Amino acid sequence: MTDTTARTAPAGTPESEAGQPAERRGTQIRLSAVTKDFGLAAPAVDEVSLTIEPGEFMTLLGPSGSGKTTTLNLIAGFETLTSGTIEIDGHDIGRLPPHKRELGMLFQNYALFPHLTVAQNVAYPLRERRVPKAEIAARVAEVLELVQLTGRDHNHPTQLSGGQQQRVALARAIVFHPKALLLDEPLSALDRNLRGALQSEIRRIHREVGSTFVFVTHDQEEAMNLSDRIALFNQGRIEQLGSPEQLYDAPDTLFAARFLGDSNVFELEGGVTGDTTRWEDRAWRVDAATVSRRSGVAERAAVVVRPENLGLVADEKDVPSGANWVRARVRDQEFMGSYRTLQLALGGQERPGRARVSTSDASFAVGDPVVAWWRPERQRIVAA
Amino acid sequence: MTAVASRAARPPARRRRDRGVDPIPAWQWVVGVLVAVYLVLPALIVIPMSFDGGLTFQFPPTKPSFIQYVRFFTDPVWLGSLGNSFLVAALASLLATTVGTAAAIGLHQLTGRLARFVRTLLMISIVTPAIVIAVAVYISFLQWHLVGTLLGYVVAHAAIGVPFVLVSVTSALGGFDPRLLRASASLGASPWRTFLRVTAPLIARGIVTGAIFAFVTSFDEVVIALFLRSPLFQTMPVQMYNSVTAEIDPTISASATLVVVSVTLVILIPQLARLRRRRPEEAR
Ligand SMILES: Nc1ncnc2c1ncn2[C@@H]1O[C@H](COP(=O)(O)OP(=O)(O)OP(=O)(O)O)[C@@H](O)[C@H]1O
Ligand SMILES: [Mg+2]
Q1: pLDDT tens across B210-262, in order?
Q2: Where are the domains of chain B?
Q3: Which residues surround ligand 2, an ion (CB under 5 A)?
Q4: What's the whole-model pTM score?
Q5: Domain range annotation of chain A
Q6: Does residue B219 contact residue B262 with C-beta atoms inside 8 Å?
Q7: With contacts defined as CB-CB under 8 Å, which chain A residues touch B8?
Q8: How many whole angstroms separate alpha carbon B130 and alpha carbon B157?
Q9: Residue B136 carries which DSSP code?
Q10: Residues of A in contact with B10 (CB under 8 A)
Q11: Tens digits of per-residue pLDDT, A125-166?
């Protein structure tokens, strides 16, 4: 979908690379049953299969130690496969050393060469490829303009801020038109504001160069912000794969529901099979469309409701007909700027939960009993 | 300060007075000066002696003259030994630097018992008495027909130079970020190209320091050289030894001065070069 914009070079700079349009479209990366075992209790990456489409922005998301970096390093060639295959555009690259894989990489610590200037850093991959001097100069200028660092050519990396250093690293990683760009938590060393700015920068550059991006992060907001698709990692396996919307609106497992966004979780005694289910003393309707297709749902399931889908009323008589509801108590409240979050104790078990109310809504105070309700089509039944 | 700031490859070096530490106490100055004088004293005697015109050793000099230098530079035996010493030291330093740098980089990436063992093995010549090494070298080189050959001198001197290179390159690698190697590989550089374009420039100081120490170690090495000497090939320290044991030849004070001066120059060159490199950037 980004292919139409992929060819637009930055305004005013002549396209020096007319000969190789195919490379700029991005490439397909296919992992088949990829496994990496460091000899620990469990493999770091366990039979991961994943096809990253040409030009796609794919994010590997997951908690610390879930195998994201290891997967990326396997693609880059910095780790050797225990088993499985990795193909780029149909060619098995498992035995290719990293420097022959033609993949750009961005590191958390920037990894700029401290003895070279900005321009020399960016020219590095071009000099390796014996590009003529004049063309190097033109391409370095072009790509520095793309990352908005024109005029800093002769600075050394230490004279730049963290955000600027990462932009230089980005310029250096895309200037040689790699088959794909691999990014390992490139923004996590930056402060919040800068991270936001660089996120949009990365999104823009992905649009403009149109190549395949594989982005590793443990920050779910960042993942949802940037990605075409997210592969959610858990203990070396892909827990769920899908667009940010799919993962947020239709998680398949409790892990996915908890990892992306806030949720109110009602863990059930068993699975969900029919069109009703019970939690404590309440009977709830089940909308078949909201039931995950994971086989685990039949054995052990949980009902998940996002805070923004939870309504609060003072009395159960005020619950709209057809809605599911549960008694709760307001435990605390947080002012979030544009809205307030009420922290709830749900049901007899006093399960922690949260609901979103407008800042002007002062109907409930801390300690008040409330009734929390939601429409059955707004809940999600996941495997627990 | 602007010059320092614009160098930027490293954070600017901070001067002592900027840091605001306590002043150095007087007794440290006294001790420091005493040690320095003690170390320089031999040179302070030999250098004046070399400018005496007598036929025996004279200190302080009575008849100032350059006659000993004239003798030195007109005598093919002395000149030849000086040339030999430079040749051996340069080649031994080159060999020791290559081996030592490669070993330091290899060992830097290894941990565990094997790496520690190999490191100790390479360092052993620093603590072994010179005479032990010399005898061992002599016996084995006799079998290999290396006694009295240029190759023999170079190999033996390189072996005792390796530890210096190993130590200085290892300490330079301590400040080297190994993640740069991955960055370089991802940009398409082979391991060898990465060494040339990234590792070597960043640890250059350690390599050069090690090379200089290896050079100097070989240049004034006398024990092994005595065992390896042949009428056809002698290094200057051996020639100096001959000149005092076989005959009383005051030319030795001129040659000793030349050794002191050249070794000092070799050690000072990188420092001067560093000062010079700072200048042009200052102009920017
Ligand atoms: N070189 C290695 N040797 C041994 N074990 C390793 C190595 N690299 C990673 N591991 C292990 O593999 C597992 C996955 O690590 P990995 O770095 O891929 O996690 P991650 O998802 O990137 O986590 P984080 O968010 O903390 O970076 C961890 O248990 C880690 O301890
Ligand atoms: Mg990681």
Answers
A1: 999 999 999 989 999 999 988 888 899 998 888 888 777 778 888 888 888 88
A2: 76-249
A3: A 69
A4: 0.81
A5: 2-249, 261-383
A6: yes
A7: 155-156, 158-159
A8: 11
A9: H
A10: 114, 158
A11: 999 999 999 999 999 999 999 888 888 899 999 999 988 999
DSSP labels for B10-68?
SPPPPPHHHHTPPPPPHHHHHHHHHHHHHHHHHHHHHHHHTTB-SSS--SS-SSB-SHH
One-letter amino acid of B63: K
Of the ligands numbered here, which is closest to the C-alpha atom of A46? 1
* β-pairing verdict for A229-234 and A57-61: parallel
Q: Is the bond into B231 cis (omega within 30 degrees of 0)?
A: no
Statement: A2-249 belongs to CATH 3.40.50.2300: no
CATH number, span B76-249:
1.10.3720.10
To test the contact with chain A by mutation, choose from B182, B184, B187 the residue with the greatest count of A C-beta atoms within 10 A, namely B187
Indicate the top mutation candidate among A69, A187, A220 to test ligand 1's pocket, ranked by most ligand atoms within 8 A of CB. A69
What is the rounded CA–CA span in Å between residue A194 and residue A8?
26
Residue given tokens 């002769």 in the structure block = A154
Closest residue to B179, CB basis, from A99, A109, A129: A109
Residue with tokens 């120490």: B213
Site of tokens 């290892």: B170
* Sequence-ordered list of residues with C-beta below 8 angstroms from that of B176, at least 6 positions apart, any chain: B199, B202, B203
Q: What is the number of the ligand 1 atom nearest to the C-alpha of A45? A: 14
The fold of the A261-383 domain, in CATH, is OB fold (Dihydrolipoamide Acetyltransferase, E2P) (2.40.50)
Nearest CA in chain A to B5: A159
